[in-house]
Design brief:
Blueprint: E1 9-13, H1 17-28, E2 32-37, E3 48-51, H2 53-61, H3 65-71, E4 73-74, E5 77-81, E6 87-92, E7 104-107, H4 108-121, E8 125-128, E9 132-136, E10 142-146, E11 151-154, E12 156-159, H5 166-171, E13 179-190, E14 202-207, E15 212-217, E16 224-231, H6 244-255, H7 262-267, E17 271-279, E18 291-293, H8 308-325, H9 329-358, H10 362-378, H11 389-392
Parallel strand pairs: 1-2, 1-12, 2-8, 5-14, 12-18
Antiparallel strand pairs: 3-7, 4-7, 5-6, 9-10, 10-11, 13-16, 13-17, 14-15, 15-16
Bound molecules: flavin-adenine dinucleotide (FAD).
């Protein structure tokens, strides 16, 4: 039972997007926070990230949107084209009549650095290069033990330690693990693509013989961001290093013969990263009285949801609000779960649907193309297809009580 007055100090395991957003929001609420992160601050890993309007809304709630806007660019439209350039389908980035704004695209390491700098400016403490090896989630003082033998204690512990979360395992000893979907997403970036990528406001998917190649130009550097998705029956090992040359060779083979920008851009890409797709929709126990999990530790949405980073931001800001407004951590965690459970489970389901659509067989794909054509003539004349409205329509009212 909680006998303290207020939550004064929060310990966060994991300084990815969720942990950093939480730190930023906790400092905005005046709560002290220490983030323990195994990677060094300047690891520079990561490729491109799409931040949907709900993620931008979460940043706006804590006055952190402007630096992100300054380093990103808006996405107005996504389209699918045949190699000859004719358009198969398109959708708008977001409903232009809504107030929620457009999705933003940027380098992942830049997003991570911008949020960390803001959090530090507001007084958050980061301990980089510190691996958490154990977590006390049921004791009166929440604590983590680090690989160097030291401990960090706080009033509460938050596990923002990603899809393979150690803290999730402590809260749910027999709980579920993320399910591998049998697909893999490959992200790349070419600073000098050697050809003309689609303009920054357009994310264009070139449908090739063996896979799609989605690309856009970075409005700031002129480089080309791209990604694709593959069937991948054999899992990558968690600790497999990202071997750029091998991935480039694999991608060159995949797009060989396609009369699109793909072969040229792949050949010139200096950064290529591969991630196996996973999904985790339902974790039975989100928290104890002293510890809780957020971000990918709590819900893993496949990349097709385009919501991993945005949901991590929502989680961080909402949990800070709950800790600000409830004296008892257990009550704050219960409020967080009430606010979040239905939404995160629905977003993961949306991502799973998107992943299976991207890997439909040839017949299903032809039927889908026919449906798209029919819609173009019948429906789109009246109303253009919009982005995923309900998932984007999420607003955090920071001033109101959680
Ligand atoms: C290095 C990196 C690069 C990424 N690049 C992209 C990208 O280019 N595009 C994209 O869409 N998504 C990317 N992602 C994934 C994306 O950030 C997440 O899916 C989403 O934002 C959820 O964020 P998260 O903070 O919950 O989890 P994560 O981003 O996975 O962050 C978890 C953090 O916890 C740390 N951690 C884990 N275990 C421990 C431990 N025991 N002790 C201390 N620290 C620990 C990890 O080092 C990591 O920094 C990347 C993630 C990482 C970690």
């Amino acid at each position: 039972m909680w006998l303290g007055d207020v939550v004064e100090h929060v310990v966060v395991s994991g300084g990815g997007i969720a942990g950093t957003a939480l730190a930023l929001a906790l400092r905005t609420a005046g709560i002290a926070v220490t983030v323990v992160e195994s990677r060094p601050a300047d690891h520079g890993e990561g490729a491109v990230v799409r931040l949907n309007p709900n993620g931008m809304d979460a940043l706006r709630a804590v006055g952190a949107h402007q630096p992100v806007i300054a380093r990103s660019f808006p996405l107005v439209r996504t389209e699918r084209v045949r190699p000859d350039g004719s358009r198969l389908g398109y959708s708008l980035g977001a409903d232009p009549s809504s107030q929620r704004g457009l999705p933003r695209v940027m380098h992942w390491p830049v997003l991570s650095a911008v949020l960390r700098e803001l959090a530090i400016e507001r007084g958050a403490v980061f301990r980089h290069g510190s691996r958490v090896v154990d977590a006390e989630v049921d004791t009166p003082t929440a604590a983590v033990s680090l690989a160097d033998g030291s401990r960090v204690e706080g009033d509460v512990l938050v596990g923002a330690d990603g899809a393979n979360s150690l803290v999730r395992g402590r809260i749910n000893p027999d709980g579920p693990e993320p399910e591998r979907l049998g697909t893999r997403t490959i992200y790349g970036y070419a600073a000098e693509p050697g050809c003309e990528p689609p303009p920054p406001e357009v994310l264009r998917s070139y449908m090739g013989a063996r896979g799609f190649f989605a690309a856009t130009r970075d409005a700031h550097s002129g480089g080309c961001f791209w990604f694709t998705s593959l069937h991948a029956p054999n899992p990558r090992r968690r600790d497999d290093p990202q071997r750029t040359d091998e991935l480039r060779a694999e991608m060159s083979e995949l797009f060989a013969g396609d009369d699109t920008i793909a072969p040229e851009v792949v050949a010139r890409s200096e950064r290529i990263l591969a991630f196996d797709d996973h999904a985790l929709a339902h974790v039975p126990r989100w928290h104890t009285d002293r510890a809780i999990i957020i971000g990918d530790a709590l819900h893993v949405a496949p990349p097709a949801s385009e919501q991993g980073a945005a949901m991590a931001l929502e989680d961080g800001v909402q949990l800070a609000r709950c800790l600000r407004d409830h004296v008892d951590p257990a009550a704050a965690f219960a409020a967080f779960e009430r606010l979040r459970r239905d939404r995160v489970e629905a977003v993961v389901a949306l991502g799973r649907m998107g992943t299976s659509r991207a890997h439909q067989n040839a017949l299903a794909r032809r039927l889908r193309n026919l449906r798209t054509k029919a819609k173009r003539y019948v429906e789109w004349q009246r109303k253009p297809p919009m982005g995923r409205g309900w998932a984007y329509d999420h607003h955090i009212d920071w001033e109101s009580r959680a």
